[in-house]
Amino acid sequence: MPKIVQNQDPIETKDIPGNTMIEMIKVSRTYAPDIKALSDISFTVDTGELFFLIGRSGAGKTTLLKLICNMDTPSKGLIEVAGHNINNLKGKKLAHLRQKIGVAYQDFKLLSDRTVAENIAISMEVSYKKPRAIRQRVRDLLEQLQLTDKHDALTGDLSRGEQQRIALARSVANSPRLILVDEPTGNLDAATTERVMDLLTRCNKAGATIVIATHDASIYQKGNHRVMELRNGKIHSLSRNSR
Fold it and tell me: How far is 31 from 10, CA to CA, in rounded Å?
């Protein structure tokens, strides 16, 4: 298991049995009038793990990610992130934990009237990083994703594939200890997909726990990691890919 990199201000995990980053116990989510998005979900993700969540559209992948980052609340069941019941956290404690979680949403959620650099810098600015360090981090991420020429472009003027990469860059910019990624390669060609996965792999090797929701088999069929498949809001299988 990759070690926590101490100089990246990790979430406190010293009191968590087995060093577990995410634990769900019998979690369900039902929307009105009677739409069952998730039913009786139980699993754990270890600190430093790269974990893939797969399934067809509508299987419940996005709902599960929203529950983990407290963008939605379960109808029943327990969700712990870094040893905290995330649905019981309020105010400063919740804000502090959220600063340690990076999320790349499927619909991007970029500020269309801001530049690419400004969008990526946001998560670092709220953590009071030094301006010089922010500028360097933004440049490094744009170079890794081959978007250097888009530094001063408005995100609203970018293609969907470019917006997708900017959303990913923003999610990892602040070196979060937990990264949640929803369909990171849906609008990308094979070469760009490889660059995106290289970036996420580097983050994982640096100590970040990463959960990737995807239907793209090409990104989870290689490597030694666990893959959980959802079907109709239920866990269909949970296995380790050893190839």
Answer: 34
